[in-house]
């Protein structure tokens, strides 16, 4: 279970999160919606442990432990996974090399044995097939020259390989056409399980037709302004975010 | 001997003259070679050791760096077997499929070299020391051509003091399927100077890879001067590769000078990791139209290492192409220097020259000096240069850490990715992989062996 209490966070001295409370029980999928600048992406980076995001107040407890005490790699080992809105391109590192390094690092940290090469290849092939990822793509440098859809599918492949139990999807639907959206959503849905919590961050309701959440939270000005069931997303689709205002910075 | 007057000589500068005086009688070679040595030492005497006010040595103060001149190591009786070779170079490099030639403290070691196999392929080769006694015409021509770049102190000292090396001639049309691996070793224990000269002549249409590796047997206070001249006939191709892993105290001076004939290709590739001070010069001169060269490499330096790569490409004839790409990884107080000079003569129209150097600074105390020099006298040319220096990208680092890679491992992967580009471009994949593995070892992580 993820428990966030009174979270305040600043970036470059500017306060973005201003007392955010959120609880995600094990096995539930929660959607985080909200206007631009409401703090959605900031929340995802704070959860993953990005250094330039400074937490000034509040707590984040993950499975009873203080998440804020952990380095990003320790969070990954503890089961936290952030699917990036803009996955990084790294020329010179083959995607497969990267996947293997990541999986083995996490397994090592969890006290599990590293995969042998044939085992690892078999597992990657299996999971890649589900996401319609060509093995040739995995021989290319990480995300270099990948289309938007390929990058996002690659993120979900990493998610399935690292077996996290807190999946944070930061605007995974951005830049996806309808076919790619379906493939990615199917990949995410295949990972839903009673042990796994998910935080699906999105600006649009569209993604939630495919990944149906248990709860929907609307972020506004760095706090949760309203929470409800999946019907809340539909309501927002009609009325828009007008009632929730824009953060001064992004409205400008 | 009458020497040109230099107003002031440092002790080391004088010691070099004395070393020559003491050694001259015992140095190998015919009367003509002795005359060449004489002329070379006079050249040196006029120049002295280079320092920062000499433009080509702006960032590398050799005169300030050398206090003592150790004796020649030519007579050192060096014990070398497979285990010493492996310790000096690492298994990945030593086991590359290649014709092996070993120079131990500069001495040609026929007993450790694949001389017979190379001769069976039609290659003419031998110990330089022996060849100098009755030099064949191709050797004399190549030595004089090298010496002709007579404002070059490293070559002048080498011509004066060379004790050994190897001479290789590839006859017309011969293609060697395996590289020639020329292994340079030092000698354990006592300080010494090693002067080696290697000559490679590729006749028309011949092609081969010459891989020179420099390893240590535990040398202390070694001063190495190694010169290789390469003469490329029309339509010939030579791939010239270097791995430098000298002892940490060594002063390593190395010049490659290639004369490239019409439609010939000369590719150079250098990986520098060892030595306290390394100066790597590559001079390429196009003598026939339609030639091409690609000089690239990687420098990995830490501690107080100083590594200087200086390239000079002379486009004397039309329609030649040159490419240069060097990557430097500099940690702690290491200093990396890249100087790239491209000269395009008046008649060398349609020249296409490009140059790039990129440094990754892992410490705030590391330093990178880059100096491009373009001298263009023709008007229909495409020439470009660029240099960058930067630190590890924090965004990339976070991405890798968020995927569970510990910080040190993530950094190593990013550094490897930075230099990886040059290794990938190497035509000979097995050498490229071995060199990438050696550099990965330097970076402190095991190389990912398996691919899908």
UniProtKB/TrEMBL annotation, chain A:
Lineage: Bacteria, Pseudomonadati, Pseudomonadota, Alphaproteobacteria, Hyphomicrobiales
Record-linked NCBIfam families: sufC
Gene3D superfamilies named in the record: P-loop containing nucleotide triphosphate hydrolases (3.40.50.300)
Sequence intervals crossing the membrane: none
Keywords: ATP-binding, Nucleotide-binding
Entry annotated with the keyword Nucleotide-binding: yes
Protein name according to UniProt: Fe-S cluster assembly ATPase SufC
Family matches, as Pfam families: ABC_tran (PF00005)
Domain of life: Bacteria
GO MF, any single term: ATP binding
UniProt keyword ATP-binding present: yes
Protein source organism: Methyloceanibacter methanicus
Domain ABC transporter, chain residue ranges per copy: 2-246
Family membership noted in the UniProt record: Belongs to the ABC transporter superfamily. Ycf16 family.
InterPro entries assigned to the protein according to its UniProt record, in alphabetical order: AAA+_ATPase, ABC_transporter-like_ATP-bd, ABC_transporter-like_CS, FeS-cluster_ATPase_SufC, P-loop_NTPase
Automatic annotation (TrEMBL), chain B:
Any single GO BP term: iron-sulfur cluster assembly
SUF system FeS cluster assembly SufBD N-terminal domain: residues covered: 11-181
Domain SUF system FeS cluster assembly SufBD core, first and last residues per copy: 193-418
Domain of life: Bacteria
Entries under Pfam families matching the protein: SUFBD_core, SufBD_N
SUPFAM superfamilies from the UniProt entry: Stabilizer of iron transporter SufD
Family: Belongs to the iron-sulfur cluster assembly SufBD family.
Protein name: Fe-S cluster assembly protein SufD
């Amino acid at each position: 279970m993820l428990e966030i209490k009174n979270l305040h966070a600043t970036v470059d001295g500017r306060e973005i999160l201003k007392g955010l409370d959120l609880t995600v029980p094990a096995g539930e999928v929660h959607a985080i919606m909200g206007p631009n600048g409401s703090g959605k992406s900031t929340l995802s980076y704070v959860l993953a442990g990005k250094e330039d995001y400074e937490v000034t107040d509040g707590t984040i407890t993950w499975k009873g432990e203080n998440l804020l005490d952990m380095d990003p790699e320790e969070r990954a080992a503890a089961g936290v996974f952030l699917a990036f809105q803009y996955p990084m391109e790294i020329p010179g590192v083959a995607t497969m090399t990267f996947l293997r390094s990541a999986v083995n690092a996490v397994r090592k940290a969890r006290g599990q044995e590293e995969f042998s090469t044939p085992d690892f290849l078999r597992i990657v092939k299996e999971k890649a097939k589900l996401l319609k990822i060509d093995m040739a793509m995995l021989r290319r440098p990480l995300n270099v020259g990948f289309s938007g859809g390929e990058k996002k599918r690659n993120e979900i492949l990493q998610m399935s390989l690292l077996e996290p139990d807190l999946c944070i999807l930061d605007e995974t639907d951005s830049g996806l056409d309808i076919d790619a959206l379906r493939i990615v959503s199917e990949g995410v849905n295949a990972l839903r399980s009673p042990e796994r919590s998910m935080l699906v961050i999105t600006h649009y309701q569209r993604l939630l037709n495919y990944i149906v959440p248990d709860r929907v939270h609307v972020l506004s000005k760095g706090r949760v302004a309203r929470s409800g069931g999946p019907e809340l997303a539909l309501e927002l689709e009609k009325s828009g975010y007008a009632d929730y205002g824009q953060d001064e910075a992004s409205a400008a | 001997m009458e020497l040109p007057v230099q107003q002031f000589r440092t002790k080391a500068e004088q010691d070099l003259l004395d070393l020559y005086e003491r050694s001259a009688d015992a140095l190998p070679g015919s009367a003509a070679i002795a005359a060449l040595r004489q002329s070379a030492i006079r050249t040196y005497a006029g120049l002295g050791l280079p320092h920062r006010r000499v433009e080509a040595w702006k960032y590398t103060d050799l005169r300030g760096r050398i206090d003592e001149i150790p004796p020649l190591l030519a007579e050192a009786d060096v014990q070398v077997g497979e285990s010493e070779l492996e310790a000096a170079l690492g298994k990945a490099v030593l086991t590359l499929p290649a014709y092996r030639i070993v120079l131990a403290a500069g001495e040609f070691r026929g007993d450790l070299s694949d001389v017979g196999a190379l001769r069976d392929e039609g290659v003419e080769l031998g110990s330089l020391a022996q060849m100098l006694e009755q030099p064949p015409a191709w050797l004399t021509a190549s030595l004089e051509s090298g010496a002709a770049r007579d404002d070059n102190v490293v070559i002048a000292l080498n011509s004066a003091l060379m004790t050994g090396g190897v001479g290789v001639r590839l006859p017309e049309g011969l293609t060697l399927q395996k590289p020639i691996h020329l292994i340079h070793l030092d000698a354990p224990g006592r300080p010494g100077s090693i002067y080696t000269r290697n000559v490679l002549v590729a006749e028309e249409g011949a092609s081969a890879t010459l891989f020179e590796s420099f390893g240590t047997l535990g040398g202390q206070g070694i001063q190495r001067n190694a010169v290789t001249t390469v003469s490329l006939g029309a339509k010939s191709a030579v791939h010239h590769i270097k791995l430098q892993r000298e002892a940490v105290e060594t002063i390593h001076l190395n010049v490659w000078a290639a004369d490239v004939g019409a439609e010939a290709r000369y590719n150079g590739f250098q990986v520098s990791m060892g030595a306290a001070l390394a100066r790597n010069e590559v001079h390429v001169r196009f003598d026939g139209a339609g030639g091409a060269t690609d000089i690239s490499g990687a420098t990995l330096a830490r501690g107080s290492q100083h590594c200087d790569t200086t390239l000079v490409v002379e486009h004397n004839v039309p329609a030649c192409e040159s490419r240069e790409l060097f990557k430097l990884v500099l940690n702690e107080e290491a200093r990396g220097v890249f100087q790239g000079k491209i000269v395009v003569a008046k008649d060398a129209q349609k020249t296409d020259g490009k140059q790039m150097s990129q440094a990754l600074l892992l410490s705030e105390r590391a330093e990178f000096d880059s100096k491009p020099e373009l001298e263009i006298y023709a008007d229909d040319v495409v020439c470009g240069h660029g240099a960058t220096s930067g630190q590890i990208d924090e965004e990339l680092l976070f991405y890798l850490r968020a995927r569970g890679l510990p910080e040190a491992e993530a950094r190593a992967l990013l550094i490897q990715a930075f230099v990886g580009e040059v290794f990938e471009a190497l035509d000979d994949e097995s050498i490229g992989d071995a060199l990438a593995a050696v550099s990965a070892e330097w970076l402190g992580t095991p190389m990912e062996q398996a691919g899908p």
